[in-house]
Amino acid sequence: MNPTEHHLMDYSLMKDKQIHRGETLNSYVNNIDDHNSKRRMQPRVGKLKLRINRDDKKTIRDTLTPQVVKVMKEYLLKGRKKYRNGQMDHLGGISSDQLDRRDGTGWGSSWSGSSKVNRVLRFFPANFAPHSGDNQRGAAKRSIINEKLHRNLKQITLGAAGSGDADGERAEDAKKGAKDAKDAKDIKDARDAKNNAEAGALHNIYRGVVKLYVDITEPSLEMIWSNSPPKRVTGSGFVIEGDLILTNAHNVAYSTRILVRKHGSSKKYEATVLHVAHEADIAILTVSDRSFYQDVSALELGPLPSLRDDVITVGYPSGGDKLSVTKGIVSRIEVQYYKHSNERLLLTQIDAPMNPGNSGGPALVKGKVAGICSQLLKTANNTSYIIPTPVIKHFLLDLHKSGKYNGYPSLGVKYVPLDNANLRRLVGLTDLEKGKAVEENSGILVTEVDEEQMRYQPADVDYCAYAEGATQAEVSTGQASSTGAHALATGVDPFPRRPPTDAHCYGLKKNDVIISIDGTQIKSDGTATLRGDESVDFQFLLNEKYVQDLCTCRVVRKGRIKSVVVRVSRVNYLVRQHNRDVRNKFFIYGGVIFTTLTRSLYPDEDTDNVELLRLLQFNLFKKRRGDEIVIVKRILPSKLTIGFNYTDCIVLTVNGIPVRSLQHLVEVIDKRDGPAGGEAANMANAANMANAANTANTASTANTKEVPSTSGNANPYLMSTLENDPFLHVQEKDNLLHFLLLTSNGQQVPLVLLRNEVQQESAEIKRVYGITRERYLYNG
């Protein structure tokens, strides 16, 4: 806040005072307070306009004189402080902590002399900023992650505790329990003492777990322009440092109101959503009513648990209204698909029974949070999953570093294992293994890459030098890319820029064999060592990285070992995996509902269209930004659509123009105001010219068909299904629009609308079906 306030000053209050630079100003503050009543009675002599930097909207009630301001400037500029380009250097005297802390007791104390919290008075204009202009410091002030939580997050690592350490701790616990039982009067007394201790610890945990009452209004999947009826769901959550509440994203998706209730209380408090990570199924809530946090215990986040660790889940599952506690063990840790987002991240499997309503509650190991209860496997008994703390850590630190959520990065490749000996020989790994150039049983074959991510991106860091530095570190210290990471962190390139381009050192290509990522071996089944003898999918290696970070990959390309750099980013899937609380795009024209293919439209892949199932299941990468699959979700009965009963059809072309996205389809329809011609005619003429050029010396040139092949300009994801549009040669009459659709039975059929009729019947269609808006478009 930078308000400009006018302050009234009494010049006579300080006219007889002698001021020395080396003194603090507390004496003058007291002097003003002593004459507080007298000051209000005396006439106002002058005004001074000051710029105040404050963290809140508290007004300054006391007065300052020009002489006091002059003394302060002299004290700072000439006495103990000096400024350089807006920065402050210390020359002795009062420390920066005394000057800058909010609760300090230095010269920056409250001018009112009251018992309220002391604050530094920012009285200089911008060019006299008494604190550093460091952007990181400003981001830290805005961060919702306080210092205590930040320290807690920094302690969380992937290899925090191995299974051997866990076994040793269990053995020590068993010995201690036996000794306690022996020293006790009897075994019953020892058991009671242990139970009492556990009950006390659990009581503190219970006070940090809350129940969520969430009112949600989801968009309708059939009447896509409207909403489904409101409904209420319940879930769980828990409080962490900083007065934050962690829960699952699927608990609060499409929420209109969220109420939370503490354990042992009947009062409900309204909560708001601060940030959501749909990929990881995590959401952060807060309660504005400060009384909520009274008698609430903040739970501490613990490390990644080990196999066979005892785990306790706490929450509010269905079947009752009060808190429920279940117990089990950690049975598996691996990279799995998250049901909410269909993304692959680290996931911990436990055998503690969970039910709907447990979602969002904590799973605890040795009194610390080991994860967030998230999902269960319905086809198996007592098979539940929790979101581990390293995934939570990534989300929170991402918010802390950048002030916003940027997502979880991916390497942007699809691969197949290289377990077959003949396949390894084909790609050249066998000879390299014999020469000890690569480790045995390492390497995966890249079958598809995200072309957008692998496209060369010029940067301040020399990719070739970065890759070489990572390789040297890998050989000498075993810590790959440490030098490159330093370059990213400091912004200083430690390597000299090479004259040739470094484009050949960037990006992975199809048929590359990845043998290591940042110095960690990638095994032939696509796994990497997590800790000890535990191996999981190599995706976990990216858990420590953030969007736009660099990583170094050692690959075998055309039989030679090469190091390349990849800038990790969010996955650019063709089919959007989750709508992230946003309604699906749609465009209603003549009763035909056009929309984009997303997983949210078919959460259970419930469609008879084989091509739609293929696109939903294989998660293809986008070839170009903005690419989408446009479908006809359904056709509303009207005079215009008699005989058209198609549902779940893919839109291939509009008047012979291949459809790239919903926005493209709308532009084609809106911009074609006359008879046949325009873009379709230009495409036809261009194709005819190309055919004529290619067959200029043959007799068949005169007989060349004037209908171009639309497959050359077709959506690349549908080329195998798209045939020539048989109606492209038909001249449009009366603004006729024809759409070529791919139906559920694999047929390509036309759907025809007349522009004039659509304009005439549009109002009636909207009235009958209660359509409030005909289009809902946005980027992304």
Automatic annotation (TrEMBL):
The keyword Transferase does not apply. Gene3D superfamilies: 2.30.42.10, 3.20.190.20, Trypsin-like serine proteases (2.40.10.10). GO terms for molecular function: serine-type endopeptidase activity. Pfam families: PDZ_3, Trypsin_2. Keywords: Hydrolase, Protease, Serine protease. Residues 575-775 form the Protease Do-like PDZ domain. It comes from the Eukaryota. GO terms for biological process: proteolysis. Residues 160-187 are annotated as: Disordered. Residues 167-187 have a biased composition (Basic and acidic residues). Belongs to the peptidase S1C family. This is DegP-like serine protease 1. It comes from Plasmodium cynomolgi (strain B). The lineage of its organism: Eukaryota, Sar, Alveolata, Apicomplexa, Aconoidasida.
